[in-house]
Design brief:
The protein is mostly helical and 116 residues long. The chain has 4 helices and no strands.
Length: 116
């Protein structure tokens, strides 16, 4: 597949989310929030990948919009994990910054598509 910044970044983010999930399950014995963040955090890249194979501009836009919604949901789960002391400040800031960057990028892409 041709290099694509949002596809690449969302896959790297998904891998970070998987590592966070393993940490939460193994070290913190946290099973509910960890599954939520795993589901939404890995769904971002899956929807981006589907968008790249979209059958139309509308299909492409719809899948990227879903990816943006999943990124926003992931942002929420990360905030809960941090505020409930499951992840420390340094870990939170690192992964949260990546999540926010993905949201900014997806927002820019979807706005561009919407207004062109």
């Amino acid at each position: 597949m041709k290099e694509n910044i949002i596809a690449d970044k969302s896959k790297v983010f998904a891998l970070r989310i998987i590592k966070l999930y393993k940490f939460l399950q193994g070290e913190k014995q946290e099973y509910v929030l960890s599954k939520q963040v795993l589901r939404s955090g890995t769904s971002i890249g899956a929807n981006v990948r589907e968008a790249l194979r979209g059958q139309s501009k509308a299909d492409f836009f719809a899948k990227l919009t879903i990816a943006l919604k999943e990124a926003s949901e992931t942002e929420y789960w990360l905030e809960l994990l941090h505020e409930s002391d499951y992840i420390d400040e340094i870990s939170f800031n690192s992964i949260y910054t990546d999540c926010k960057d993905g949201i900014k990028l997806l927002t820019a892409i979807t706005k561009t598509i919407k207004y062109n």
